[in-house]
Amino acid sequence: MTKPERIRKAKKICKLYETNEFTIESCCQKRKVPYDTFYLWINKYKEIKKLYKKTQNIKRKGNNTKLIRLARTALEKKLSFMEYEEVTTISRSADGITQIAETKIISKIVIPTATDIALALNNLDEDFSQNEDLSSEKLEATDFEYEIIENDKDKS
Asked: Which of 2, 1, 8, 17 shows the shortest CA–CA distance to 48?
């Protein structure tokens, strides 16, 4: 196989790998290039090495973006006092027959912690994150109420 053919194959492998749906090993397998051979090409040809590094960076940024989106969604749910139901089923066995004896449904609310609130304010509210007076304070949770408590320091 010529160098241009190897580069074309490597591009196809990297393009497939970039989709985040496959491992590099499975991409090589799908393009009928042994995994070890692909790594030999990376070490031998700077064009393929550069292409592979670029693909890894794209994948890394894509993964980070996905994680940030998931974290924001989770934080938004907590800050909105998300409600959910917890279902517990109690069963009893008699004479070899298992029957549902009782089903309990408990409504629950996820209450944001002081850390959740501080994180949201620091990242979403410019006034909070840039205000020197507020930056020296911390949020502390007390019986589901949130208070701003000053740090212990001399104010003279």
From this structure: 8
